[in-house]
Amino acid sequence: MAEATTAENTQTGILGWVERTGNKLPDPVFIFFYLIIALVVVSIVASLSGVSALHPTAIDESTGSALRIDAVSLLSPENIQRLWVEMPATFTHFHPLGYVLVVMLGAGVAERSGFFAAGMSKAVKSAPKSLLTPVVALVAMLGNHAADAGYVVLIPLAGILFAAAGRHPLAGIAAAFAGVSGGFSANISPGQLDALLFGITEEAVGASALDPLWTANIAGNWFFISVMTFLYLPIIWYVTDKIVEPRLGPWRGGATAGAQADDMSPDPAEESGALAAKGLRHAGYAALFVIALWLLMVFAPGTPLVDEAACEAVPAADCSIHTQLAPLYRSLVAAFFLLFLLTGWAYGRATGKIRSHRDLVEMMAESMKDMGYYLVLAFAAAHFVAMFGWSNLGLISAVHGAAAIQSTGLPLPLVLGLMVLFTGLLNLFVGSASAKWALLAPILVPMLMLLGISPEGATAAYRVGDSATNIITPLMVYFPLILVFAQRWQKDFGLGSLTAMMIPYSVWLLISGTVLIVLWFYLGIPLGPDAPVGYMLPEVAAPTAPPIMN
């Protein structure tokens, strides 16, 4: 890591400015605490100034007109009492917390048993040399479900495989890094990231009180992220083969030069051979069992995951199959928990990594230890989001922000495109996906709802910008590790070299993702099952007046 540190210190230009500015920022946990302090001050000023807005959907029963929402000081007796009395509930009822912890209980077993590493190694090693780049990119994007394994296993493995094929290993590292991190939100199925982001989205919708009946569906971006996967795949392929690798020049170091310069990552050979093949076969049986179990609960008599009574009080023309399948969509968090748990357990049993139930429990416990930082971050984020709601500033800002955007006359898809670019810029300074979304969602989600964009649409736009610039910011947590992987093959490869190598990927992913989200909304294609791009506020009993501010 010494070489990485030296490279950081010599960084100049705009990249150096980004690095220096970002390094001056405190940890995201303390960013939330500082924002809470600022929020308290702003709430006091707003309350004393009489800042208000008219609620878009609620009616004041005493007057029959739109309900007036006033800014409330967070130092009011009621809010001070709520802060201290409800602190445990504020933390434990934070929606992303339960979603993420449940999924990670299973994913931790799949990672620690070696299942994720074996699956990625098998997929990449089996690729024909002519298709090495697209296979690496595709496995990298699918490997997002494997959390850290995508970074510590696949990226160094890609360098080794490229070198063995007579190609430049840094091109393999670049392709894998672009897929794992630049294509962070792209996948063919929902996973832990969807559970995390939609948990925050649900929290933001709940705090706004715009639609009390809206609930998170972690499949709400399923169609969109699947298309992202197959859009990003040829882009990463093209940039690697036509832009990055030609600039690197021919590789003359041999198939293994520098491949084992240190022990920073697992040896890919550890999860290969007959034993690993047996484990993967058993894991496949476990996956088929989970899929069959969920199909049984959908199609068998009694249909526990289908609400057959959901349409009884709704006109047939207004009811869809997605309304009845709501329990199925909400069960997907548990489905992914069971899928990861059983496939990891089956692989571990077959390979000898799991010899008893105690080994299984230990792996689950270790995965929770890894979530320690996230728990601290979630505690701070939960209180920031909750206090934003208590002050009414989130809804007031959303109402006036929506009115301001409407006054500009900008088309809604263009608004989403600008949101993508803003998120990509912010990502250069705040790397955590959950931290950024917890900061932005309380205002952006209700504001876009008022403009006619669904919470699923806001989440989709956010994730495009969040992933595209991951690969060019030195503040991304894995950036120094990727630099070390690269320096195994080229000792003088510095931070600026890595950033410059990844810029073409970032630019093309950002452009293509922005175009995709704009076209998607112009065409009005659903983002996922029961997840339209547009949104209509619940009907109110009386017309609402234009928003006002005193």
Automatic annotation (TrEMBL):
<keyword id="KW-1133">Transmembrane helix</keyword>
<feature type="transmembrane region" description="Helical">
    <location>
        <begin position="332"/>
        <end position="350"/>
    </location>
</feature>
<feature type="transmembrane region" description="Helical">
    <location>
        <begin position="218"/>
        <end position="239"/>
    </location>
</feature>
<protein>
    <submittedName>
        <fullName>Membrane protein</fullName>
    </submittedName>
</protein>
<feature type="transmembrane region" description="Helical">
    <location>
        <begin position="498"/>
        <end position="523"/>
    </location>
</feature>
<dbReference type="GO" id="GO:1902604">
    <property type="term" value="P:p-aminobenzoyl-glutamate transmembrane transport"/>
</dbReference>
<feature type="transmembrane region" description="Helical">
    <location>
        <begin position="410"/>
        <end position="430"/>
    </location>
</feature>
<feature type="transmembrane region" description="Helical">
    <location>
        <begin position="437"/>
        <end position="455"/>
    </location>
</feature>
<keyword id="KW-0472">Membrane</keyword>
<dbReference type="InterPro" id="IPR004697">
    <property type="entry name" value="AbgT"/>
</dbReference>
<feature type="transmembrane region" description="Helical">
    <location>
        <begin position="97"/>
        <end position="119"/>
    </location>
</feature>
<feature type="transmembrane region" description="Helical">
    <location>
        <begin position="29"/>
        <end position="48"/>
    </location>
</feature>
<dbReference type="GO" id="GO:0015558">
    <property type="term" value="F:secondary active p-aminobenzoyl-glutamate transmembrane transporter activity"/>
</dbReference>
<feature type="transmembrane region" description="Helical">
    <location>
        <begin position="467"/>
        <end position="486"/>
    </location>
</feature>
<keyword id="KW-0812">Transmembrane</keyword>
<feature type="transmembrane region" description="Helical">
    <location>
        <begin position="283"/>
        <end position="300"/>
    </location>
</feature>
<dbReference type="Pfam" id="PF03806">
    <property type="entry name" value="ABG_transport"/>
</dbReference>
<feature type="transmembrane region" description="Helical">
    <location>
        <begin position="371"/>
        <end position="390"/>
    </location>
</feature>
<feature type="transmembrane region" description="Helical">
    <location>
        <begin position="131"/>
        <end position="164"/>
    </location>
</feature>
